[in-house]
Amino acid sequence: MLDHIVLPVSSFVSSFTFYSTVLGELGVEPIKRGHRRAGFGRNGKPEFFIFEGDVTAPGLHFAFVADDRQMVDDFYAAAMAAGATDNGAPGLRPDYHPNYYGAFVYDPDGYNIEAVCHLFEAS
Question: Which pLDDT tens digit goes with each residue over 46-83?
Fold first, then answer.
């Protein structure tokens, strides 16, 4: 349904570093970069853009797809090491659905970002 998301950030440099590190754990990389703006994605298509501007709604929530639960764990560890604030450690969220495995953090601007895997994995 969505083609791309554009997010204002208070500091391009710190947000670019944060998202490069954290999204890299999900196989997402910087694809396009300009003056105080960048687009991240997979397979050459940027889908998540940041630009330096006024942060208008830090309560926004974004969930990024993880291919497996280990990617969720790696995303969370990278985010915490990069200065994120915890908003829910990796784990099953059976109240969402039985296979919902996610981790939640707040980025440097207070946006609630998540990595989620919906696949069943035997323990």
Answer: 999 999 999 877 678 999 999 999 999 999 999 999 99
The owner of tokens 């207070």 is: 110
The superfamily in CATH containing domain 5-51+63-117 is 2,3-Dihydroxybiphenyl 1,2-Dioxygenase, domain 1 (3.10.180.10)
Q: Mind listing the pLDDT tens digit for each residue in 96-116?
A: 999 999 999 999 999 999 999
Alpha-carbon span 111 to 59, nearest angstrom: 6
Where do the domains of the chain lie?
5-51+63-117
* Residue 16: other Cβ atoms inside 10 A: 19
Distance CA 100, CA 98 (A): 6
